[in-house]
Write a structure and sequence with these properties.
Blueprint: E1 2-7, H1 14-28, E2 34-43, E3 52-60, E4 65-71, H2 74-97, H3 112-116
Parallel strand pairs: 1-2
Antiparallel strand pairs: 2-3, 3-4
Helix pairs in contact: 1-2
Length: about 120
């Protein structure tokens, strides 16, 4: 899987990039349909200490999964974003694995109304 990391208006150090790559590789184990990922690192120009923003986009067959979180550190924001993506992956897996209602009118079977009579 390809992992692209972009930092806006600053140079991210290799230690931070390795941390992010490792986190994304771990979350990718939960879903085999992940094609690639895009990570954007930003520093918001405010007086608040929670000015580090991490946005992660996982490109998945069908729908992309996106999470953007803000924290005091990029590592903290990455952890929050990964946690949100795990929740999205679990919801996606539940939707894809649910069993549909049984159609009683298939292949000569009685319909639900006919079974009541």
């Amino acid at each position: 899987m390809q992992i692209n990391i972009n930092s806006l208006r600053f140079k991210a150090d290799s230690k931070l990039e390795d941390f992010i790559r490792e986190k994304i590789r771990k979350v990718a184990k939960f879903h085999e349909g992940i094609i690639s990922s895009e990570v954007t690192l930003k520093v918001e120009n405010t007086d608040k200490p929670e000015n580090k923003i991490v946005e992660i986009r996982l490109k998945v067959k069908g729908n992309d999964l996106i999470s953007s979180k803000q924290s005091k550190t990029f590592e903290g924001a990455t952890d929050l974003a990964i946690s949100a993506l795990r929740t999205q992956i679990n919801k996606m897996r539940k939707i894809n694995n649910r069993t549909d209602e049984v159609d009683f009118s298939v292949a000569g079977q009685e319909t639900e109304d006919e079974m009541v009579d």
